[in-house]
Amino acid sequence: NAGVMQNPRHLVRRRGQEARLRCSPMKGHSHVYWYRQLPEEGLKFMVYLQKENIIDESGMPKERFSAEFPKEGPSILRIQQVVRGDSAAYFCASSPPGGFEGYTFGSGTRLTVV
Amino acid sequence: DAKTTQPPSMDCAEGRAANLPCNHSTISGNEYVYWYRQIHSQGPQYIIHGLKNNETNEMASLIITEDRKSSTLILPHATLRDTAVYYCIVRVAPGGGSEKLVFGKGTKLTVNP
């Protein structure tokens, strides 16, 4: 998974706090995707972004969750007022346009809400 | 919303070929099939993808049926390090410029010594 950098690897937040997850795509990749994985489940699509644009956020919860991919810097997945049900592994993937070379995933951020 | 069906688990002897089946009977003509694997809780690792032709790379072979309703991933000589959850995935393009991988539940492959 070298190339797509996610940080932090582990994040602990108390209920009601904010969580910020960062993703730096592979060099030359302009498309970023966020997925969430609950224990013992497959990955669920959340949002697809290109630089400064949200292309598809159909998998994002309607409240408390937001994502951005600014012109400069990493993509950010932000969760406000976290609840215990937000505890999960959050993976970021990146691709060049078209995705025909495959999508490269990062190592994920494991969020624990206490 | 998953467009793929896989057996939940499979076993394979070390050194033998592992053949992992996948059904995707509702796949559309322009939707690609991707295979990824996840070892422990690491990020998914790309293995191979294809549209209608069989594909081979240094990791595996992908056999897609002529009607495209199913496919098989073949690991020719499984090793203990191939123990992982293998996901057969359809890449969908729902419109508006969007594209995404739709994961199912995957197959837990255990390679035994």
Brief synopsis:
By secondary structure, chain A is mostly beta strands.
Task: Describe this structure as you would to a colleague.
The complex is a heterodimer of chains A (about 110) and B (about 110). With about 110 residues, chain A is an all-beta fold. Helix content of chain A is about 0%, strand content about 50%. Chain A has strands at about 5, 10-15, 20-25, 30-35, 45-50, 55, 65-70, 75-80, 90-95, 105, 110-114. The mean pLDDT of chain A is about 90. By secondary structure, chain B is mainly β. Chain B has no helices and ten strands. In chain B, the strands form two sheets. In chain B, strands 1, 3, 4, 8, 9 and 10 form a six-stranded mixed sheet that branches. A four-stranded antiparallel sheet of chain B has the order 2-7-6-5, with no helix packed on it. In chain B, strand 5 and strand 6 form a beta hairpin. Chain B is globular. The relative contact order of chain B is 0.34. The mean pLDDT of chain B is about 90. Classes of the chains: A mainly beta (about 110), B mainly beta (about 110). The interface of A and B includes residues 56 and 89 of A.
